[in-house]
Every structure is written in structure tokens, then in C-alpha cells.
Recover the amino acids of this structure.
């Protein structure tokens, strides 16, 4: 057996510094730009055969204009567009800012994207902080997104129907799930854009929702362990950090989104999602 070499204090320190700088370089330079396309099938009870295979392209949490540029949004949208989604959904935090900040133009961000059932968005907490009306009109004027605020649009294909709603933000807006799906036949399946997934735990009311499409948590953005992020911006810790989650009230798909706040992500790559609905 060879003699084991003991490391000097200096060598331990040098290796520690090298490890720290490697993690820092990765989390600031590589991972924030390393997009992941997540594909997931989701069964929706009562979904008609005509909508079996309906594809939702989900992109969230842009946080324009800080820490993101048009090119990165194009890369994300191109990844999704290549999958030919039937609809694009954006559940909020299009912008980041505070009241009286300029609501910058979104011209050029989404000009070339289309889908058979269009593009729909709702607003997130950061959009409300900047100003609900100003942000909503910017999105309507500058992009092909239809903004749904406690409202829905019907989706019909080959005799099957689905209600696609957008609910206002749980903490900063005035969410109303009943209003969102007002007039929808109880038998019709409902998919709801809702920025903050905590709504799936806290909503009180008897309006059924079959799937909520959420963002907000950024997948924790910086994880210390693969299953643990110290900050999720959710009152329920890791529960709604990312992925398909059965909440107390509603089931949600929570995307990690594109956010690159402070130009940093660790073990939580920016995500675009292709959800394929399956009739159950
Ligand atoms: Fe966000």
C-alpha cells in the first residue's frame, strides 16, 4: 500500500477556491444560457378525443428588460416553435420593474411566432408592480399575445372543447377563478394560466380547474441540492418549485421559466415546456 499524502492547509484552500470559482463560472456564464425543452404528457379527465394530443408551448418569467435580451427570448421561442405547439401560453412576469419605470417596447420579441390557436398570456406579480394596465396594453400592442385577466377563450377541435383561462395574480392582482370560467359548461375541461402556483393550495371556491399552468418559482433558480432551493417565492417551500404538482385544490404544471435574475442559475436550467394533453 502506498503512503497516503496529506494535503497541506494551503493545498486545501487552493482546491476550495478552484472549486468555488468553477461553480461560479458555471452558474453565471453557462447555466443561465443553457435552455432546456421539457416534454410532458398530461392526462385531462373528460378531454374529448378531438383534443387528444393538443400541444401547449409554455414559456414564462421573462422579466424584461433586466437580465434578458431579445435573442434569448427568440432562442426559447424557436425551441418551442420547432415542436409546432397548438397554442403558446405565457403565465406572467413578462416584465420586471417598479411603478413609474418605463414599460419598454416588446416589438421584435414575438413578431414571427404564431400557432393555430394563437398565443395567450396572463400577468405575474412583477407585471402588477410595474402597472397592470400599462403592461397589458404593451403586450396587446406589441405582441401577438392575447392577455387574459380573469377571462377565458374557448378551444375547439374536431368536436372537442376546452376552456383556456387566464387568472389574475394571487398576491398582486384580484384573482377570480369563477369569473375566469364564467359561462363554461361544467363538463368542459379547463386549463388555467395562473402565475403563482400557491393558488393551487389556497383558492377557496367550487370552480373546477383541471390543470393550472404556472411559473413564478423559477425552479428555485439557485439550488443547493438537486431537491432543495433556499428561495422558491412560494409559501409552501419546495412543493411548487417545479414540474407537475397535485395541490390541495388544483393540479399545476410549474415551469422554471426563463428568468436570469442576477445572471445566475444553479441546478435549475431555464425551461420551455411542451405539454401534450391526453384524454383520460
Ligand atoms: Fe418571475
Amino acid at each position: 500500500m502506498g503512503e497516503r499524502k496529506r494535503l497541506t492547509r494551503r493545498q486545501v484552500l487552493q482546491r476550495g477556491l478552484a472549486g468555488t470559482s468553477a461553480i461560479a463560472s458555471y452558474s453565471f456564464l453557462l447555466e443561465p444560457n443553457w435552455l432546456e425543452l421539457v416534454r410532458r404528457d398530461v392526462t385531462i379527465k373528460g378531454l374529448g378525443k378531438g383534443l387528444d394530443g393538443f400541444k401547449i408551448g409554455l414559456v414564462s418569467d421573462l422579466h424584461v428588460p433586466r437580465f434578458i435580451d431579445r435573442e434569448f427570448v427568440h432562442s426559447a421561442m424557436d425551441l418551442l416553435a420547432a415542436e409546432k405547439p397548438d397554442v403558446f401560453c405565457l403565465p406572467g412576469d413578462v416584465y420586471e420593474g417598479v411603478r413609474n419605470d418605463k414599460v419598454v417596447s416588446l416589438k421584435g420579441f414575438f413578431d414571427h411566432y404564431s400557432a393555430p390557436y394563437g398565443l395567450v398570456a396572463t400577468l405575474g406579480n412583477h407585471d402588477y408592480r410595474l402597472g397592470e394596465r400599462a403592461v397589458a396594453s404593451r403586450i396587446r400592442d406589441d405582441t401577438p399575445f392575447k392577455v387574459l385577466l380573469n377571462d377565458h377563450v374557448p378551444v375547439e377541435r374536431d368536436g372537442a372543447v376546452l376552456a383556456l383561462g387566464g387568472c389574475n395574480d394571487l398576491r398582486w392582482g384580484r384573482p377570480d377563478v369563477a369569473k375566469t370560467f364564467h359561462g363554461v359548461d361544467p363538463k368542459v375541461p379547463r386549463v388555467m394560466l395562473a402565475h403563482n402556483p400557491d393558488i393551487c393550495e389556497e383558492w377557496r371556491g367550487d370552480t373546477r380547474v383541471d390543470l393550472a399552468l404556472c411559473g413564478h418559482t423559477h425552479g428555485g433558480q439557485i439550488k443547493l441540492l438537486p431537491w432543495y432551493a433556499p428561495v422558491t417565492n412560494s409559501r409552501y417551500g419546495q412543493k411548487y418549485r417545479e414540474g407537475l404538482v397535485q395541490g390541495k385544490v388544483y393540479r399545476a404544471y410549474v415551469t422554471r421559466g426563463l428568468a436570469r435574475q442576477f445572471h445566475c442559475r444553479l441546478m435549475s436550467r431555464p425551461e420551455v415546456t411542451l405539454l401534450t394533453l391526453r384524454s383520460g
